[in-house]
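Researcher: Next sequence.
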Amino acid sequence: MPNFPLFHDRHDAGHQLAQAVLVEMANLSATQSGVKPIVYALPKGGLPIAEPLAQLLHCPLDVVVAKKITRPENPELAIGAVTADGHVIRSRQECFMQLNNGTWRTALQQAQTKAQAQLAQFKDLRPLVDAQGAIAILVDDGIATGMTMAVAARALRAKRPAQILICAPVAPKHMVHTLGHWGDRVIILASPESFFSVSRFYGEFHQVEMDEALESLKRGNQFAS
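Model: Next structure:
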């Protein structure tokens, strides 16, 4: 693990990621000529990362809202993830698979309700876009367990895009291969073996408030063509 932050803040990480995605999009142009890109952020932290990417590509910026499914006694431990529109994944760890159905259903419903409430807050600023046939660029500020990214990719896959690009500034080295099962292409700027948490790779990693997330979504769509 490096003894210094890889990124000053989300703004810095977003601009670095945007340059890497631009190179990948240039490589795609030979086989996907004329196919429109759409950037999809996982809010709230993914929106400041996705904003400069959408601006650089002059394409729409939308959101896919996914929430971790957790046990009441440990809200930080993900046992699955769900999107606002009901796509679900469940941890394959044996201890979580043995949860009784009532506990699972309650936790699932609570997480989906949170996702739906958050999605409603973005309603007025979301662009009118359709992922079918598009290059869907799915972005977050970092990937740890990968559950929310996986379920977001599943939700996007159901909309039948031409390709899904999974993009983040940082993810654990062991996760990179797994990400390839969820998307057609994976763009990760750094994949350290020793990980612990996404925040450790940022000099400044504050909680993104809803006002900031909404402003990022608004600015990200200013130059969409």
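Model: The mean pLDDT is 91. Strands lie at 37-41, 61-63, 66-71, 74-83, 88-90, 135-139, 163-170, 185-190.
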